[in-house]
Amino acid sequence: MSVTTATHATSDDQYVRFVNVKKSYDQQNLVVKNFNLDIKKGEFVTLLGPSGSGKTTCLMMLAGFEDVTSGEILIAGNPVNDIAPYHRNIGMVFQTYALFPHMTISENLAYPLKVRKIAASEVDRRVKEALALVELADFGKRYPGQLSGGQKQRVALARSLIFEPSIVLMDEPLGALDKNLREQMQFEIKRLHEDLGFTAIYVTHDQTEALTMSDRIAVFDDGVVKQCAAPDVLYEQPSCAFVADFIGENNHIPGTVTRVDAGKAEVRLADGTLTTTQNPNCPDAGEDCVVTIRPENLFIAREGQVLDNCVDASFITRLYVGDSIRYFFRLSDGSEIMVKTLNDQDAPHIATGSTVQLTWAGNGGLALARAS
Asked: pLDDT of 52-68, one tens digit each?
């Protein structure tokens, strides 16, 4: 496809731009559908979604490893659709490390500098700085096979930064690490991002990773971004049922809207209970919706407690997970619902099959249009 080479007006708020970008591998089915996103210079943006949702394809198009079917990608106002990957000044970190096994760690780090014909003295200086930056100053003479998974990923990260790229792309970089190493590397990546100020675009399907690391998160589903916002906005104010369900744990209770007024919605649940919730985008009165409630916003009512919203529920079981306890209940319509409480002296003990009332504050639930 032919694209214009004219320079577009830009600002630091539009450092990376996806403009009406589409991608098809067979010229019939779109895996990315009309993708639009502006990324600020120095921002950390995560592309989050299930497998096959289009997030990695967008990253590969920005890197230049995949062609754009239609639309335009710009960096600093310049279209890059027809620019070779090695001319885009982009660093890349993969899940598989992609280190040369026959080269020492220092030689692996030096490789992208030598390709760019950097002077030998400058190569040596940058390699030493890069090793120190990822706290591997004494590992330069080792080979990749002599390092742990976490150390290999630090080297891969250092190699992506050593030629001072303006943008660093990371494709599931921590997917091969165990939980403790993954959490440690999340901290290291954020530290480097804050210290060096590069623009980071990160792909993952791990919700916790995205919430922990990102300035903004774009949530993908079937080639479409459902919502792009700061982590706290996505978690507390999801725009649709898919985002509410995909970001963190959530309960979905089907119901029908009876009244909408000033940001609030009154919803009648299947058992006839009337509830009041927040109303980001629910349908008009008379239409179906789902009430979504985070497990930590749902409480087991105590005897004599005055309740704003409540629903009868039959206790199924409880799950001990250390610092918290998850209680599972079944509603009259057959749907299951979960309550999460702290594991403390107030954690209740409930007999299996007992009926209790579950309650939540009016601002603890959201009325959302049902996912299509």
From this structure: 999 999 999 999 999 99
For residues 356, 243, 281, 262, the Cα torsion angle rounded to the nearest 10 degrees is 60
Please count the structural domains in the chain.
2
27 and 69 in a single domain? The answer is yes
Whether residues 172 and 318 share a domain: the answer is no
Q: Are residue 125 and residue 38 in the same domain, yes or no?
A: yes
pLDDT tens by residue, 332-362: 888 899 999 988 777 788 888 899 999 988 7
Return the C-alpha torsion angle 167, 47, 61, 9, nearest 10.
-60
Express each pLDDT in 295-322 by its tens digit: 999 999 887 666 678 899 999 999 998 8
- The parent domain of residue 333 ranges over 249-368
6 located within any domain? no
136 and 102 housed in the same domain: yes
Same domain, 287 and 218: no
Distance between CA atoms of residues 14 and 40, nearest Å: 5
pTM for the whole structure: 0.86
Name 99's Cβ contacts closer than 8 Å, sequence gap at least 6: 108, 144, 152, 155, 156, 159
